[in-house]
Write a structure and sequence with these properties.
pyruvate-formate lyase- activating enzyme; 5-stranded mixed sheet; 2 domains; alpha/beta
């Protein structure tokens, strides 16, 4: 594993590695294609391509691309990077199989999840999804986990993979499958315990929604408390407001939960239905009441500007959030279109992209939505960002992607200098909670 994250000279590190090593293949994992922020629209693939191009000047071994970003748009990424091989979905089983075939010279074209160049195009094999209940506990020794922690990260944990929900914009099911695959709670907590032994005591559950199914999340928490780790672990999670109960909130707290980020998207039932969510505003009121009663820190995350959004629905949503009074509200304006999602299919049926007034970003010549394109309802007007800022006003509970005053209300984590400074001063935890705490602490003072 050559981890370039801390490298001030990644080209030099690559040169140094290949000066002393020969390899059968090089795997490159791509986590994100862009920052999915309408405000900044930063596209990461050009930098990834530079790295891959440099690798190919140092070795003739084949490059294999994988990772969650790759799994969403594999053919486009292979074509853009000039690479012939990639693996979609889980790589734990398919990558070793591919390596065996490459080393032996065997036929690899039937390997699950393999994407390979064929003539002028590509062929994609259906992915194979690992049975996580049978998988061994990861050792987490390939990278310097403790350095990631001290530099502002957390111990990232998966308790499951896949998502069986119908949100029209979400790419998670494309990369991880539409069937929930649950890990053994004992394996999950053993992995957390191994990171704790490295000195890492802040964690984040990376599941799409940790509390679904409720019984699995509860079993993970019970295993934490059974091992007596509830007062040593500090963790955060993404959760759904559906099926969240007071008993669950109390169990979460006993197991070390420090905060929950609920993806709620809107405060209007009609918008929730349009976006494919399986809960209603009534669930937001119930969940907020539970969290307030339990003194549980929580954030409601909004995804604004989707199909049917108007200035009135935006106003209603902001007013509902103010009444519900979560610890923080994340307000993201503009919905990134990813190929293969229901929303992207809806947009295609609306007619030519260049004539669609709801589309923003790199629209022309980008019919496959490879580079960032955003859906932002034309009914919001050209001043949508300012209108949202005016609705929020001076309410410090709201994070905005481009707040007029910046500071600790800036919800764009990418190159957030205030976050960097807070982390240098010793703040730990989810970035949204760090921003909440530095505001309440009067930092910077």
């Amino acid at each position: 594993m050559l981890d370039l994250c801390w490298s001030p000279d990644w080209a030099g590190d690559i040169d140094g590695y290949f000066a002393h090593h020969s390899v059968a293949a090089v795997g490159v994992s791509l986590r994100n294609s862009d920052d999915t922020s309408f405000a900044s629209q930063e596209f990461f693939l050009p930098t990834f391509k530079q790295i891959i191009d440099h690798i190919r000047t140092r070795t003739s071994a084949p490059v294999i691309i994988g990772g969650s970003a790759f799994s969403v748009m594999p053919e486009d990424i292979l074509d853009y990077c000039g690479v012939d091989l990639g693996i979609t979905g889980d790589g734990e089983g398919s990558l070793p199989l591919l390596m065996e075939k490459l080393v032996s010279g065997g036929d690899y074209k039937s390997i699950p999840g393999l994407v390979y160049r064929c003539g002028e195009g590509f062929r994609c094999n259906p992915p194979s999804y690992t049975n996580l209940d049978d998988a061994s506990t990861p050792t987490r020794t390939a990278v310097d986990n403790y350095r990631y922690f001290t530099e502002g990260g957390m111990g990232s944990i998966e308790s499951k993979r896949g998502c069986n929900k119908g949100c029209i914009y979400c790419a998670d099911p494309l990369g991880k499958g539409r069937v929930l695959r649950l890990r053994s709670p004992k394996s999950v907590v053993s992995e957390m315990e191994s990171l704790l032994q490295m000195g890492i005591d802040y964690f984040h559950f990376c599941d799409s929604e940790f509390n679904l199914p409720p019984s699995h999340a509860e079993q993970v928490c019970l295993e934490i408390t059974r091992r007596g780790l509830g007062d040593r672990l500090n963790w955060y999670a993404y959760c759904s407001p559906a099926l969240f109960s007071q008993e669950m909130a109390a169990l979460f707290q006993r197991a070390g939960c420090q905060g929950i980020d609920f993806g709620v998207d809107s405060g209007v039932d009609r918008m929730l239905h349009t976006l494919g969510r399986d809960f209603e505003v009534e669930d937001l009121w119930r969940t907020a009441a539970i969290c307030h009663e339990q003194s549980l820190i929580f954030m409601y995350d909004l995804l604004l500007g989707g199909p049917g959004e108007t200035r009135e629905t935006l106003r209603q949503t902001v007013e509902v959030m103010k009444e519900l009074s979560p610890s923080r509200v994340g307000a993201a304006l503009g919905v990134r279109l990813f190929p293969g999602t229901e929303l992207s299919n809806m947009v295609r049926k609306m007619g030519p992209l260049r004539a669609n007034l709801n589309l923003k970003g790199n629209v022309i010549g980008n019919e496959r939505f490879f580079t960032p394109v955003f859906y932002l309802s034309a009914a919001l007007g050209e001043d949508a960002a300012q209108y949202l800022a005016d609705l929020v006003g001076g309410d410090e509970r709201f994070f905005l992607m481009s707040p007029p005053e910046g500071g600790n209300r800036n919800y764009d984590y990418n190159q957030n200098t205030l976050l960097v400074e807070a982390i240098c001063r010793g703040y730990k935890g989810a970035f949204w909670d760090i921003l909440r705490r530095i505001s309440e602490d009067g930092f910077p003072g």
